[in-house]
Amino acid sequence: MMALQIVSGEEFSANIESWRRSAEFSLIDEHPIYGAFGRSYYPAVYGERRSDASFAVISGGQPLAIVPCTFGETELDYFGSAIRIFMRSGLEGSEAQRALVAVFSHIDSIMSAHGIRRVTVRDDDRLGTLSSIGKLALNRRASAEMRLSGFCALDEGEAAMRRGLRKSFQSLVNWGQRNLKITSVGGGNPDRALFTRYREFHSVVAARVTRSEQSWDAMFDSIAAGHGELVLGFLASGELVAGNLVVDGTTTSFYASGVYDRERFDQPLGHWPLWLAMLHSAEREKRVFDLGDLPLAGTATEKEFSIGYFKRGFATTIGTWIAWKWPVSSEAEGGGG
User: Fold this and answer.
1) 3-state SS assignment for residue 157
2) 16, 81 contact by CB (below 8 A)
3) What is the pLDDT of residues 26-78, one digit of tens each?
């Protein structure tokens, strides 16, 4: 049995592009958060506040697991999201377990070396029994939080998408179709002036500047290259009242942001632009539309819960996953018992 090695730093950076293009790790680029968009956007957002700690577990010169991750002052995660462990396609049994143990052991080392106090790891196993990730997390006295995400299957056609649409939303989508003029920014219309107008609208609605100029540049570059779209809704007067930004991975579109005029919350401004963005994602031959997190009652603010309720009305499927979190502990174990 070949010894396992950890590759990180410059060696990881030199190899990650070829690894992620391989069929064995194509999953990395399927979703934009962990794919090409995330690799350009999140460093622009966080700058020097985050350090890259990504690594791979190697055997015989081939990666068995790839783990994109970053750390700040106290947290080890992936730019604020849970760490997602990408295992080599087809890796099973004892070899997969051995690679996972090496992943968790290196996470322990990162936390110890940098004084990190908490780590968050994503577990997508839905078998109904404790996963290998779960066992290793429990060995570190981890706590578990169930998370919900909303998805719409795009590859089954518009009729199937409509069956997932909340019944009360149909008339609201129709209202928007009648009353909003839609303009899109993307590969077919890389209009920087319209994108800047959305950026300014975003800051007015949020009552503050929430993102750096470099992060906005990363978003524009992505959609201008055809990897997503900005859908803008205008009233007949020409006033911008709605905007949805969608970014693409190789198979998945992600609802990155939605901004609507707060003074017109009595009008259904968001339904038609979002529905249209989903249809356009299907036209770009994406298979899944990820609506994002759906917070559970009591785990988020009322505003966050309401946003989740809105997004849930477009979902054909509600996915579940576990966020494992644990602090540094002298009792942490590296085995998989």
Assistant:
1) coil
2) no
3) 999 999 999 999 999 999 999 999 999 999 999 999 999 999 999 998 999 99
Return d(Cα 222, Cα 247) in angstroms, integer. Answer: 7
Yes or no: say if 151 and 317 are a contact pair by the CB < 8 Å rule: yes
pTM: predicted TM-score of the whole model, two decimal places:
0.92
Dist. CA 268–CA 277, nearest whole Å: 16
CATH number at 5-146+322-327 = 3.40.630.30
- CATH number assigned to the domain covering 157-284: 3.40.630.30
Q: How far apart are CA 55 and CA 7, in angstroms?
A: 5
Dihedral of CA atoms 207, 211, 212, 217 in degrees, nearest 10, equals -120
Q: How far lies 290's CA from each of 145, 263, 315, in Å?
A: 20, 28, 9
Residues in contact with 265: Cβ distance below 8 Å, sequence separation at least 6, in sequence order: none
The amino acid at residue 98 is R
Please state, in angstroms and rounded to a whole number, the distance separating the CA atoms of residues 332 and 337.
12
- The three-class DSSP label of residue 170 is helix
Domain residue spans of the chain: 5-146+322-327, 157-284
Mention every residue, 6+ apart, whose C-beta is less than 8 A from residue 211. 45
Q: Are strands 51-52 and 70-71 parallel, antiparallel or unpaired?
A: antiparallel
E strand map for 99-239:
118-123, 143-153, 181-186, 228-234
CA dist., res. 281 & res. 259, Å (int): 19
Q: For residue range 121-153, what is the model confidence (pLDDT) as tens digits?
A: 999 986 689 999 999 999 999 999 999 999 999
Q: What DSSP string describes 94-118?
A: HHHHHHHHHHHHHHHHHHHHHT--E
* Cα 220 to Cα 40: distance, rounded to the nearest angstrom: 11
Q: Check: CB of residue 318 under 8 Å from CB of residue 312.
A: yes
Distance CA 218, CA 225 (A): 11
- The strand order across the sheet containing 70-71 reads 51-52, 70-71, 75-77, 118-123, 317-327, 143-153, 288-293, 252-260, 240-248, 228-234, 181-186
